[in-house]
Structure formats: C-alpha cells, structure tokens
Amino acid sequence: MTTEHLLKAENLSLGYKERTVIEGLELTVTPGKVTAIVGANACGKSTLLRSMSRLLSPRKGQVLLDGKEVHKTAAKELARTLGLLPQSPIAPEGITVTDLVGRGRHPHQGVFSRWSAQDDAAVASALEATHTVELADRAVDELSGGQRQRVWIAMALAQETDLLLLDEPTTFLDVQHQVEVLDLLTDLNRSRGTTVVMVLHDLNLAARYCDQLIAIADGKVHAAGDPADVLTEDMVRAVFGLDSKVITDPTSGGPLMLPIGRHHMVASAAGELPEHRS
Amino acid sequence: MSTTALRTPDATTLATVTLGRRRRNRRRLVVLSVLSVLIVVMVAVSLMVGRTFYPPMDVLRVIMGQEVQGASFTVGRLRLPRTVMAVLAGACFGLGGVTFQTMLRNPLASPDIIGISTGASTAAAFAIITLGLSGTGVSAFAIGAGLGVAMLVYLLAYKDGVSGIRLILIGIGIAAMMQSATSYVLSTAGQWDLQEALRWLTGSLNGMRWPSVVLVAVIMILFVPLLSVVAKDLNMLQLGDDTASALGVRVDRTRLLVVIAAVGLIAFATSATGPIAFLAFLAGPIAVRLVGPGSSMLLPAALVGALLVLIADFCGQYALGTRFPVGVVTGVLGAPYLIYLIIRTNRTGGAL
C-alpha cells in the first residue's frame, strides 16, 4: 500500500495581477480517496489546482503536503510525490507514445543518469494501466482525443506519485471516453491507493466518481464532503446560479442533478420552480 | 494485493517498451556516428583539396607541427584555422538555434530569425567599421548586442508570459531594423572593405586567423557544459511550462541558463564569422528529421551545423567559378526551407 499523504490548503489566497481569484480558502484532501472539485467557469478551480502543485505561489496562506509547504519544497522532490496533469499539455511533434510516457520519469532521474530498468518497468506498467500498450510505438499526434488523454494519464502514472492532480481530464472527450478515463482513475485509486484530485466540468460524473466533492464559489469552498451531501439543489443554485432538481441516480444510487431551464419543461417540473423564476 | 500486480508489468509489455527504446537509441547512435564520420571526412577534404592538392601525409605532418614546403603556409595558416572555425561555428550556430527552437517550441524561433545573430553582427560591424576596434573589443560588442536584442525581444513579447508567435514576429521586426543598421554602417565603410563587409551580411570564413578560432573554442568550453547540464530540463519544456514544472523542472531558471548559453555561443560565433545565413535555423529541424523526435537535439544539431558549414564553405570556394562566402551558400539552402516551414507551420502548428 502506498503511504498516505495529507494535502491541505490553509487560508489560501491566489490571484493574477490585480485580480484575486481565491481568497481565504481552507481545504483538506482526503488521503487515499478520489476528490472532485467543481464550480462555475472562472471560479478558480484550475488556479487552485496549479497552486496545490507549486505552479502558482500563494499571495497569502499556504499549501501543505504532510505539514511541509509545497512552495518551499524542491521541485523535483515534490514531483516524486505529487503529479499534475494540466488541462492542455503539449506533445512534441512526432514523439512516440513510449517516449512521451517516459518523460514522466524525469523527477526520478539525475542530470546525467542513464535510463534504468526501473524506468522501463514504470513506463510499461503505466501503459498497461491505461490500456495503451498497443499504441506504444505510435506517434502521439496520430492518436484520437481519447487515446491521447489516456497516454497523458500514462505519463502522469509513470511519474509514480502517490498524489495525482488532474485539470479537467475529460474535456473535449466523447461521453464514452469520459467514462473510460474516470473508470481508469478509479481503478488507479483502488489498486494503487493513489489519491486523485480532479477538476471536473460535469457535475453528475463528478458526483458519481468521487468520494469527496468540493464545490468552489466566490473564491472559497462552498461545500465539501460526501457527494450525496454536497450535490443538492441549494448548492447548485448558490454555486452555479441554476435551478435544478436532484434525484437519485438509478444506475449508481448517488445524486443526479437535472438542470431546470426556461424551455422544454414538463408542467410538474415547471411547477417546482422557485418563486423568483415563475 | 493488486497494487503489486499493477506495478509489475507484463513481460511482453516490458519487452515492447525496452525494445522500442533501444531501437530509437540505436537510430540516434547510427545517425550521430555517420554525422561524425562525415565531419571527419569533410575536414580532411577541406585540408587537402584546394588550388593545390596536398596528400594526407603532408597535411598530418603540418598538423603535427613539422615544416613542409608550401603546405605549412597553405594548410597550416590558411586552411586549418578556416576548417576548425567551420566546425566550431557550425556547432555553435546549431546548438544556439536548436536551443531556442526547443525552448520556444517553434522552428521559426531560431536566433537568426528573431534578430539575435543580426544584432550581434550589426554591433560587430559597427565596432569594426565605425569605431575601428578589433579582436576582443569586437566580440564584447557582439555578445553585448546579442544579449541586448534577446532581452529586448523578450521584454517586448512579454505579456502574461511569452507566446512563441508574438516573440517571433517582434524578433523578425527587430532583425529587419538591425539589418538596415548594418547596411548603413557598411555604406560608411571604404570600398576596399567589400570582402570584409560581406561577412557582416551573410557570414564568411575568409581570412580566418587562429586568435578568433581560439576565442570561440574557449567560449564553447564554457557554455557547452552548461547547456548539457540543462539539456534534459530543456527537453521537458517542450511539454509546455505547466507540465514541465509539474515534472519537477524549474522552468524560469532553466530558461535563463539556456538563453545565456545559447546567446553566448551565437554571439561569439557571429563575432568571428558573421551571421552565417540560416544556419541556426536549419540545423535543428534537419537533426530532428535524421534522429527522430523524442531525445535531446543538442548534439545532433551541433554535428549537423558543423557539417553544413564544412560542405557549404567547400562548395562556396571550389564548386563554382567564383568564390562565394559560406553564408551565400547556406542562404540559398535556407530560404526555400524557411518558406516551406512557414507554410507547414501555418497548416499544422507544428513544434520542431
């Protein structure tokens, strides 16, 4: 079993230039679990993720990994414990899948150290875990969106970190590939004990695939906890400004949010609209 | 428990990974060896062949320091410094070029396109023609201007981080300005300096002397090790700044070191030979096509650069009736490639 690491944000404030995005945020990631972060566009989800992985320095407060400030930890040392897959990573032109996945080994290698058998093993097991073995010698730019995303996840796996942060790993993917990626991350969490933190767009998929759901609004954590407790009609209204109906998902038993818009509503749903909308 | 099952890969998968990597490594090794052999052959040819042919034994004896009638002057004083400079300058331009191209993820971002070599050459021309300096003074001017232009382009292109395209466009503008400054400086020079003047327009190895060769060699001894220490980190920058940092690369520090080393190499080489046209721009992309993508392009680009200069200089001197400076030949090769790259980059947004 992997050792469990505690990732925490304390009184965290983040921003770019004059704009403050996150202010006084408190957050604890449950170790060994899958955490999903949701929130409206531009609410600072990605900013938060970047700061938790040392890419953005806080204005105030701190991010702690096992009690140690990540912004004061050496970059390579941190990269052996905590991995981040950004939203749109760039694949060098013509690079093969194996070579790209091998780049994930960087934090484990010295300046002049040679490629080791352990590096090969890590790459091979990352390819297996992401079902990309048959793509090994293909060029990354020839792959479909879903395949490419699995390859990027494989790269993050080859990094062999106990914590893995992902920024919208399902964007631009068809629904079947979204489910595939989320299943894959769940496998990873269950088999390797990797703590997974991901920013997700789709509330329902987030609620289904996470153990801890965190909703961000106004630069703070609006609600955090079990998805069934967090994904409520009130939360959706407060965080997204959207009326909705939350029912029990007949396939998973968890919460399922159905948005209420202005059109295509049956009378019974429209009747449940709160006063201010009718 | 299943943790171990996932960590230990299947033997066939492991074999696929290992074999694939070995195959690509082998290709790299073969290409590097072939390039090295070709460089040695071209060096030998450049030393032996010319208006007078000297057999290999004579050339070797000259290199060993023995006195050989006729060869001591022609080979020892003329051909040898010229040939050694061809190799060194080619390597410098190749290294500097591929470093910028890798760092900015764009083949158009080479120092000769974005004005760094042009800046260095303008300063060198100014120092020689207007100020009447020579030797170290010229080099100091060239490296100062090279760094200055690099910083200027970077600052002008900076807006919430540096975007490759903005930097390239600004660089092209600065390069054009520098070029006209060079033309102005040259127009004030005496007619008798025409041969020398050409050096600052396209680059030339004519009249190469040992002191310049030694200076460039010393600079390489300083900067090449620095570049090779950050080579891996530089390669990681290809994945984008965020991914690279997430993999433990200190992006800003890497970029700073790499720019200093690359500008240093380019500026000193330029102060000795002038801006050999399109060389920095050509070496990297040719190297990638030979070696295949994925590994560090520093060494392959250095070898390709050296070989290109050797061949271009030899062709420029003997292949045609008139003697052309080396930059004219590389310019003829480079311009069509530039057009091809612009068209292709426009279509695919390709990297290197």
From TrEMBL, chain A:
Source taxon at top rank:
Bacteria
Gene3D superfamilies from the UniProt entry: P-loop containing nucleotide triphosphate hydrolases (3.40.50.300)
Molecular-function GO term, any one: ATP hydrolysis activity
Q: Which GO BP terms sit in this record?
A: iron ion transport
Q: Which keywords has UniProt assigned to this entry?
A: ATP-binding, Cell membrane, Ion transport, Iron, Iron transport, Membrane, Nucleotide-binding, Transport
Q: Would you tell me the Gene Ontology cellular component terms?
A: plasma membrane
UniProt keyword Magnesium present: no
**Annotated ranges, domain ABC transporter:** 7-243
What is this protein's name? ABC transporter ATP-binding protein
Q: Which SUPFAM superfamilies match?
A: P-loop containing nucleoside triphosphate hydrolases (SSF52540)
**A UniProt-annotated Pfam family:** ABC_tran
As for membrane topology, the entry says:
Peripheral membrane protein
> Coiled coil located at which positions?
none
Which InterPro entries does the protein's record reference? AAA+_ATPase (IPR003593), ABC_transporter-like_ATP-bd (IPR003439), ABC_transporter-like_CS (IPR017871), P-loop_NTPase (IPR027417), Siderophore_ABC-ATPase (IPR051535)
Subcellular location per the Swiss-Prot or TrEMBL entry = Cell membrane
Automatic annotation (TrEMBL), chain B:
Q: Which GO terms describe its cellular component?
A: plasma membrane
Main location as per UniProt: membrane
Q: SUPFAM superfamilies given for it? A: ABC transporter involved in vitamin B12 uptake, BtuC
The membrane topology noted for this protein in its Swiss-Prot or TrEMBL record is:
Multi-pass membrane protein
Q: Where in the cell is it found?
A: Cell membrane
Highest taxon above the source species: Bacteria
Alphabetical keyword list: Cell membrane, Membrane, Transmembrane, Transmembrane helix, Transport
One of the GO BP terms on file: siderophore-iron import into cell
Single Gene Ontology MF annotation: transmembrane transporter activity
Membrane-crossing residue ranges in chain numbering = 29-49, 83-101, 113-133, 139-158, 167-190, 210-231, 256-284, 290-312, 324-343
**Which family does the similarity line name?**
Belongs to the binding-protein-dependent transport system permease family. FecCD subfamily.
Q: Tell me the protein's name.
A: Iron ABC transporter permease
